[in-house]
Specification:
The protein is α/β, with parallel strands linked by helices and 342 residues long. The protein has 11 helices and 14 strands. Helix content is 27%, strand content 20%.
Amino acid sequence: MTPPNHALDVRRTLRYLRIAVTSRCNLRCIYCRPPKGPAPGEPEGTEGQDLLTRDEIVRFVRLAVECGIHKVRVTGGEPLLRDDILDLVRDLAATPGLSDLGLTTNGTLLAPLAPKLRAAGLRRINIGLSALTPEVYHRVTRVGSAEDALAGLGAALDAGFDPVKVNVVVMRGVNDGEIAALAALTRDAPTQVRFVEYMPFRTSEPPETSGLADAAGGAQAARVVAAEEILARLRQLGDLSPLPARRGAAASRCYRIAGHKGTVGVIAPHSAPFCHACNRVRLTADGRLRSCLIEGGEQDILPLLRRGMDRETMQRLLEAAAAAKPARHHGSFRGRMHQIGG
């Protein structure tokens, strides 16, 4: 049995590791990538890359689990673009002491892979879905098909994933008109649809590149739809019953709409930050250990990993990551979303 990781009590205990296994993606969402070419920080001539090998990822996870991590989520980019994703999931699922393995995907490539991922040992899946209306979906993603994403969602449910969560980043004037339709996905299926406040971000990209300025030049902050407004719109669909908070789920508040099989949730990083309860650390696609999604605090661990990292080194890295976590973020994202995976 892995001993408890008391050393991480410097600020808080880290239990949840999110790994971006690629920065490549088959979509170009307006809050993540430019319309064409490499994203900021990517080499010219590339549109994402896989820097971490499967063996490096598996070794990192095994060391992290020995040091107290028990929940891992595979993200991207789009993780299903990796040719070895099934082998990677199978190897991670076999990690001694790992109790929770999930994956976040945009769903467009999921339909044929869902049963294979389930057989490989994956148990949880989150699907990013910005809209059901094809025109709105295309406005957010620029490419891709809402129909493909919905096929992925159906395949995940058929494969027996539990839970299947749908994440919706809500942006005023972009896709906030889709809230009711997306919430309706919970009527007949045990899906959890989580509406996430859009986080403004600090970037050197001009508005026309980021895709989030409207015809009047609206600022990013004006795109935020606060959690309370989202809840008010959900209440128009029926009585909302709050559900007991699940241990370790500080990020979301969950509810059931009367008569629905599934649930809805609201995540409010902008209006109600949950920094005090955050137990997450992220490994980016380019091998940086990041303490906080929004504020940063990165350590480049790729050289250490390739020289042969041991448990003692991992312990020190996690302690430093825990100590670097801010008491509260300051309201806008700084970083490379395509490298981090949210």
